[in-house]
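As a representative case, the lines below give one protein's residues and fold tokens.
***
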Amino acid sequence: MLKISRLPLGPIATNAYVIHRNKEALIIDPGGDFDKLNHYLEERELSVKAILLTHAHFDHIGAVDEVRDAYGAPVYLHEAEKDWLTDPDQNGSGFFQMGKITARPADFMLEPGQMEIGAFSFEVRHTPGHSPGSVSFVFRNQRFTVAGDTLFQRGIGRTDLPGGDRKTLEQSIEQQLFSLRDDMRIFPGHGLPTTVGEEREENPFLNGRANR
């Protein structure tokens, strides 16, 4: 059975996700606190098959190289942000004066469509707006999606950072996330999980509801 675990990590409690089955794991957005993440993995004797990044902002990449080196796992990132891992100005760590946070370049570029890594099968959807290379990982059979900083519980991703665009973000949510079934669980980059149906009906930032 496929399981997903949420671990808030790093300087602003960014959600890292461990998706695991039969001692194999995918890590999504290891944002920091490698010791905490590594303890979770070792305690369950998990072997990391890949590190997937929803995007390359500093708070999502802090432990990328430590996980990569400890487990020999390749890193996947959308091509639109291929230079961000090595550049504090683009990944935002310089902008927020958090100290320079960097990682080595990704090993592979993500493309929209179905992917299979080890025992895992999922769909990559390009969901730009918060950042140009933002993606969401859809595990359709398990009815959950890891959406990064695109859609939150009663919120949406900020668009005031370099490469952000509010209209593009709204289009991504409407076309790529709200096209999923209502009971699809959304696991965001920050905060608690929600569902497509809840956000379609209750999110105050979408469809003009914030102005009512």
Q: What stands out?
A: The chain has one domain: 3-211. The helical segments are 34-43, 64-71, 88-91, 166-177, 196-202. The longest helix spans residues 166-177. The CA atoms of residues 122 and 139 lie 5 Å apart.
